[in-house]
Design a protein that fits this description.
Largest sheet: 7 strands, mixed
Radius of gyration: 52 Å
CATH superfamily of one domain: Immunoglobulins
Distance between the termini: 155 Å
CATH class of one domain: Mainly Beta
Number of helices: 1
Strand content: 25-35%
CATH topology of one domain: Immunoglobulin-like
Structural class: mainly beta
CATH architecture of one domain: Sandwich
Shape: elongated
Number of strands: 10
Mean pLDDT: 82
Helix content: under 10%
Oligomer: single chain
Low-confidence stretches: 21-42, 47-55
Length: 200
Amino acid sequence: MKRKYAGIILAIFIVAFIVTFPMIGCKRVTVTPAATVETTAPETTAVPITAAASSETTETVQPAVTAEKITKIGAEMTGAIPSFMCINKINMVTVEVKNTSDFTWRTDIPNLVRFGYHFYGQDVSFTEYDNTIRTVLPHDVKPGEIATVNVEIKDVLNKGTYVIQIDMVQEANDDAANNFWFSSKGVTMIEGTSYFGTCQ
């Protein structure tokens, strides 16, 4: 009788073990489909392009100046050459000039007009006609206007007596015919004799 009950109990235990074994230590995992990750490029917001403010001042292009036609060349100069000047300093000779030409004397090309001078050594062998320093006008001078100019004289470097001739010149034009000393057109220069020595 005991064996019978023991066999029944054993059978029940085996059946229970078989039924419950897959669940022992095993956890049912529910697999859910992975969410599809859609990769998209970050949305770009269109930014209107505006001209950036420049820190530099915009340069205004000035129209080119046209050379005036020259039919009359004239000037009336007044002034005097000092009797003594320095070889080691800049000498200034004040000249007043009236524009009796029919074109404007400008401080830049075209029609650039400046003062120059010629010197001729009397008791020394030093002479120069063209390559002396130029003095610019204080401003553009229109026909009929008068200007006062401090003409620089500093190219005489050796002691001695010289003849100095203050002249006006139009130069730096492409047309060679518009480059000339005013004296070559009949304008009277300011002329005088000066001794050049050393100054303290």
